[in-house]
Design a protein that fits this description.
With 386 residues, the protein is α/β, with parallel strands linked by helices. The protein is 37% helix and 15% strand. It folds into two domains: 6-246, Aspartate Aminotransferase, domain 2 (3-Layer(aba) Sandwich), CATH 3.40.640; 249-384, Aspartate Aminotransferase, domain 1 (Alpha-Beta Complex). Helix 5 (158-168) links the parallel strand 4 (140-146) and strand 5.
């Protein structure tokens, strides 16, 4: 088959041939184990814990194709993908360089959990590559960034990360959750591995939890070996749902990006709003980097109200179209306060050090009519500052 374009690959990249019983939609294979010949070895065993049932195999093929990577692996959650990958690459005594302003769960893992295993981490400003060399140690093994950071939408110097990793023999890792393969394809830009909370944009319907590791086949195989031991498998029904959800990924993300840009411009002009964090705004410090590296500016934004945390809480209680809930990337718009959700594990002082105000509101823009969404925000902001 000729090389298909992105949206066509979403639908057809991993179709089984011939189709099982002619089914247009691949069946869900609920069997936990499969027959294999008496002369087969362990690598021929098919078993749900090994993430190699027909539903897993099809999903892996789709994910690898979307990022034009060599291989892919699904996990039970985004944190399972992150933790298993880092524990596959790092050993006691090793050192990791990671960006500041990570997702709260990732920050806790690299600064606390890894430390308990004798693995140290140095946090750096991902937009200042001239400072990274100072963090290097003889035992540094990898560098870890997020395509768009959670929750302030900071943008790393992504080409510099790749160059730095190659120059110093490091594995380059990027959490591509916020961008998705629609906006950024790490393997084509030289990253060794990309990680996803597939719960978010990849699935897009707020009805499952999953993770993904995509990239170099040798590294993915190593991660799979650890995952087989840790048991963080994805059940076939969730794999099937994720495969179905990804079919509309391109349509959803492009709509969400366009709407998020409109909402950001609206909020930027509202007198009750102190600051908007969205890389599509020209005054965002990462605007030029995002414009250069990404296909669009994303469907996520955050903002602060001039009246502070009390007004933020009133705003969250006052939205009717947008739901106040954690998570992101679904078809519905969600609003939340990171201080009480994604970054609740940090102390107020730690959040303040990273620029995460207690009243910061994070918005995951859905696919509603953007005029209705702005109307909803307008009413909520009026009540928030009344």
């Amino acid at each position: 088959m000729r090389q298909l374009r992105f949206d066509s690959r979403l639908l057809h990249a991993s179709e089984p041939s011939p189709r099982p019983d002619g089914a247009i939609v691949q069946p869900i294979y609920t069997s936990s184990t499969y027959e294999h010949g008496p002369d087969a070895d362990y690598h021929d065993v098919r078993y749900i814990r090994l993430n190699n049932t027909p539903n897993h195999i099809a999903l892996h093929a789709t994910l690898a194709t979307l990022e034009e990577a060599e291989a892919a692996l699904v996990t039970a959650s985004g944190m399972a993908a992150i933790s298993t990958t880092l524990l596959s690459l790092l050993r006691t005594g090793d050192h990791l360089i990671a960006q500041e302003n990570l997702y709260g769960g990732t920050h806790a893992f690299v600064t606390s959990d890894l430390a308990r295993l004798g693995i140290r981490c140095t946090l750096v400003d991902s937009a200042q590559p001239d400072t990274w060399a100072a963090a290097l140690e003889p035992t540094t093994r990898a560098i870890y960034v997020e395509t768009l950071s959670n929750p302030l939408l900071r943008v790393p110097d992504l080409p510099a990360v790749v160059d730095f990793a190659r120059a110093h023999g490091l594995v380059s890792l990027v959490d591509n959750t916020f961008a998705s393969p629609v906006l950024y394809q790490p393997a084509t830009q030289g990253f060794d591995l990309s990680l996803h909370s597939a719960t978010k944009y990849l699935n897009g319907h707020t009805d499952l939890v999953a993770g993904a590791v995509i990239g170099r086949s040798d590294l993915v195989r190593e991660v799979k070996t650890r995952l087989d031991h840790f048991g963080g498998c994805l059940d076939p029904h969730a794999a099937w749902m994720l495969q179905r959800g990804m079919k509309t990924l391109g349509l959803r993300v492009r709509r969400q990006c366009a709407s998020a840009h409109e909402v950001a411009l609206y909020l930027q002009g509202h007198p009750a709003v102190e600051r908007v964090y969205y890389p599509g705004l020209t005054d965002h410090p990462g605007h030029d980097r995002a414009r250069t590296s990404l296909a669009a500016f994303g469907g996520m934004l955050s903002f602060e109200l001039r009246a502070g945390v009390t007004a933020a809480e009133r705003f969250l209680r006052s939205t009717t179209l947008a739901a106040c809930a954690p998570s992101l990337g679904g078809v519905e718009t969600l609003v939340t306060r990171p201080a009480t959700t994604s970054h609740a594990g940090m102390s107020p002082a730690e959040r303040a050090q990273r620029g995460i105000a207690e009243g910061l509101v994070r918005v995951s823009v859905g696919i509603e009519d953007v005029a209705d969404l702005i109307d909803d925000f307008d009413r909520a902001l009026m009540q928030a500052v009344a």
